Amino acid sequence: MKILIIGATGDTGQRLLKLALQEGHEVTVYIRNESKLEAQSGDDAGPDYKVIVGDVFDRASVVQACRDQQVVINAAGNVGDGELFETLVQSVSHAVEEGLGDGGRFWFFGGAGALDVPGTSKMTVNLPKVPALFRAHERNYHSVGSTSLNWSMLCPGPMTGAADGKPHQGLRISTDIWPVPRPAVTRLLPPIATALAFKLKMPEMTIAYEDAAKVILDNLDQDSPLAKKRVGVALPPGMKRSKDIQSLTGQGK
After folding, report:
1. Domain 2-234 adopts which CATH fold?
2. Is the entire prediction scored with pTM above 0.70?
3. End-to-end Cα distance, the chain
């Protein structure tokens, strides 16, 4: 499949590139720093993929890069960048819409806070004590959802590199709601209890960058069951992953 990866030198982007090549996809990368890509690629640099150097805010350039692609994956940006993150995601999505046309397949990143609390229609970022910064995921969800794209929004918790460089087998995947159970008792308690339960579940949702790449690459098709869905990901049952978690939601990539 012909894939364009925007932001292929980031933590997730470089894993997407590596795995996509291993799976035999025809890959184009859109980056701003070719020397960084060369340093990361090492001996793998060469004719295996096409490189376009440009600015993600250069709409005409992004539109042109999307021409003739079957799927575009945006791995650029980080919610920690504040308003710039929103601007980036929304700018890229509109350029992709123009470049791919109506129904174009598009993957982008949010965070676990963009998932609904199970049993409700309430997005997790609107629970008490969730930093307002993470509501950018909600706004990006609504913005991209208003386009004509056939989008999917990956909503992981915090991410870190896999020790063996490989994705986990048996990942739990959900659509629109948490990928982990909500403690039943929280349904009878104030919303702050649900927020605390979510935070306590975060080690189960602390996945590897390689996991994120695998979920996306396994679901590139137009008729994927994850199309037009927010996608939650958790480690296999009984597995937890440690990371310095500073908030209730992942950072978006």
Report:
1. Rossmann fold (3.40.50)
2. yes
3. 23
